[in-house]
Design brief:
12-stranded mixed β-sheet; 5-stranded parallel β-sheet; alpha+beta; 21 strands
Length: 664
């Protein structure tokens, strides 16, 4: 659980490899100092700054930006250093703000390497200060803690470093300013933010959106300017909605006083230390030529992730604007007709007919104009999609993407996973679909609904079940493929053995942790083992004794596929399943249920919390997902292996080969 600190408050750290993420309302310089137990900095080699960004256990960005990530390895910090202070300062460039009181309050978050937020702090009550000690990590009795500091200095970096006892502090502050100026001179200018006319307003995260419909309590999606991690376009929010943090607030573009820019922060924030490719210039009056990775981020994967986010939000915005314009046109026509025909003398004859024709003509003009804007925005997004889709890495790519043919087992866990595509009725005319991405590690289980819905009323029940099982197998294969070998395990509960055909690709490849469990005894055994694992890891984490776990405990992420629920489940098994759904994701145990909710109706409302805890997916296209900002009903389309393709088998063969090399 994230600790939201106030000035002076501290919080223990249970890990030593961390990231410190900074988000500010304007470009800032981020640095760090090492100091002794009295808070004194011994020399220049104890200061990490853009001109000298790396120290033992520390690495800071090389230039000013509105968003930063600082890498910290507390185990590598010298023994003589007892504190790590994180510093923020405003650059002294022309046109830059000269005090923190003129910009939005900076936000600082301490996160694990997996993106999980440990503690956060919003630095409020700053005014004339141009430099601030945001927070400090300090060593006390052999353990590390984080403290929110928020100490500002009107004299800038020179005054801050002088206060920390650094000799020749003013000279070093001047050198840092010169290094920042050189970095700005090398920076490639980012493309201007899209305006409402060009279709760049921010909407929701497909994921957060998606999960909102399935679970009304879902938070808004990730990716807010101050979130601990950028949130994805299409990630149906996981657990009580992963949307850490808070919704992005509308911000006025610089130089504008009228319109409000709602663009997703990943598409409008200043460029990160690694410049992203920018859109190719276009002819005057023509939209820019889209470029894959044209968003902020520290790697191409993160830039593509943020770009997909932005595409989702742009589509939501332009469709919302179009629907609003049509509603306005309808309302205006009704009002004009009411006014024109309120006089009984004008209800008959040529005068009444003329009024009706004039009202309909104005209505048609408004709708046509709105449609022109929508078509333009859709065409631009479709062009961007044709560029982005082929550039996606395997974790974000559809099964028909050629990138899977060159698949090799990865060395690192990706940021997100594609669960399918999202579409709105208006976007079907150009075939525009937005990848639905969910952040990894999973924060919420999933439920593939094998029951009937309005969109598949003509599909036979048995066919829906077959499709649901196939979707579960493809999703499990994708999860196995995007995790490094040995870091993800899949278990299957198939009480009646009815899923043998669909599970064949996983069984033949030998990538399951154990053969599918059948019968009441098999169900009980698997649930008991996974429940015990959750209990042990929870106790170890809460007790600060992660190294005390049994040596034979599998620390890999676990996925449990449950078929034909509630067949083969007694009351005790149902209780364990609910426990895994609630407590499992926090310690790496996830559910993937293939079930028809109606089949479990005999349990009554007792299982309602279980269904709400899971993200509902469907084996056929269905419009059950809704975003929490605009309220669109998004059509979810499950990922499908192309007919006749052996790509799934090839990917599983590579997963099996990598596992054998690891001795698994």
């Amino acid at each position: 659980m994230t600790a939201e600190l106030v000035r002076g408050q501290n919080h223990p750290l249970n890990q030593t490899r961390l990231e410190i993420r900074v988000s500010a309302g304007a470009p800032v310089v981020a640095g760090a100092t090492l100091s002794d137990d009295e808070g004194r900095v011994h020399g220049r080699d104890w200061v990490a700054h853009p001109g000298a960004p790396a120290l033992p256990g520390l690495e800071v960005p090389r230039q000013a930006a509105a968003d930063h990530r600082l890498a910290v390895d507390l185990d590598a910090v010298p023994e003589a250093a007892h504190r790590v202070s994180v510093l923020l300062a405003l650059p002294a460039g022309p046109g830059d703000p000269d005090r923190f009181g003129a910009v939005a309050a900076p936000f600082v978050a301490v996160t694990g390497l997996d993106g999980s937020e440990v503690a956060s702090y919003t630095i409020t009550d700053l005014d004339a200060e141009s430099a601030v000690v945001a927070l400090e990590l300090y060593r006390r009795h052999g353990a590390w803690k984080v403290r929110a500091v928020g100490q500002g200095y009107a004299g800038g970096l020179g005054a801050l470093l002088t206060d920390q006892g650094l000799p020749d502090a003013r000279a070093l502050a001047g050198e840092i300013g010169e290094a920042v100026a050189r970095g700005l001179a090398r920076t490639v200018a980012s493309p201007p933010p899209r305006t409402a006319a060009s279709g760049a307003s921010a909407m929701v995260d497909a994921t957060g959106a998606a999960s909102h419909a399935a679970s009304p309590g879902t938070h808004p999606p990730d990716g807010s300017p101050r979130s601990s991690r950028p949130q994805s376009p299409a990630e149906p929010q996981s657990s009580p909605a992963p949307r850490p943090e808070h919704e992005p607030q509308p911000a006025r573009p610089s130089g504008e006083t009228g319109s409000v820019n709602y663009t997703h922060p990943g598409r409008q924030a200043p460029a990160p230390p690694v410049p992203a490719p920018t859109a190719a210039p276009a002819e005057p009056g023509q939209p820019a030529v889209p470029v894959a990775g044209d968003a902020t981020g520290w790697s191409m994967d993160e830039r593509l992730y943020n770009q997909v986010w932005g595409m989702f939000e742009d589509l939501a915005r332009c469709v919302a604007a179009y629907r609003s314009a049509v509603d306005f046109a309808d309302s205006r026509m009704e009002q004009e007709l009411d006014r024109a025909l309120s006089d009984p003398r004008s209800r008959i004859g040529g005068q009444g007919d003329a009024a009706r024709e004039a009202a309909r003509a104005k209505h048609g003009q408004l709708v046509d104009r709105a449609r022109e804007v929508l078509d333009r925005d859709l065409a631009q997004l479709a062009a961007e999609s044709t560029v982005v889709e082929p550039a996606l890495p395997p974790a974000y790519a559809g099964w028909d993407n050629p990138v899977w043919h060159a698949y090799r087992s990865p060395m690192e866990i990706p940021m997100a996973l594609r669960l399918g595509d999202l579409q709105l009725p208006e976007s079907r005319s150009v075939g525009l679909r937005i990848p639905m991405l969910v952040r990894l590690p999973l924060e919420r289980g999933m439920w593939i609904d094998s029951g009937r819905s309005g969109s598949d009323a003509l599909t036979e029940s048995d066919e829906l079940r077959r499709r649901a099982l196939r979707s579960a197998v493809e999703l499990a294969a994708r999860l196995l493929a995007v995790y490094p070998a040995g870091e993800f395990a899949v278990h299957v509960i198939d009480p009646a053995g009815s899923a043998a055909g669909a599970l064949a690709p996983l069984v033949r490849a030998g990538v399951l942790a154990a053969p599918p469990a059948a019968g009441v005894a098999g169900v009980s055994d698997v649930l008991a083992r996974l429940t015990q694992r959750v209990d042990l890891v929870h106790m170890a984490v809460h007790g600060g004794a992660a190294d005390a776990l049994p040596p034979d405990l599998d620390t890999a992420e676990q996925l449990l596929i449950v078929n034909d629920f509630p067949h083969g489940f007694d009351d005790r098994a149902v209780t364990r399943l609910r426990y895994l759904a609630d407590e499992g994701p926090a310690v790496g145990v996830h559910l993937l249920m293939v079930a028809d909710r109606e089949d479990a109706a005999e349990y009554g409302p007792v299982l309602d919390p279980l269904w709400r805890a899971l993200l509902r997916l469907t084996p056929v296209p269905d419009d059950h997902l809704a975003d929490p900002w605009v309220g669109h009903a998004w059509t979810y389309e499950p990922p499908q292996v192309p007919p006749g393709s052996r790509i799934l088998e090839q990917v599983l063969e590579e997963v099996a080969r990598a596992r054998r090399e690891q001795g698994i």
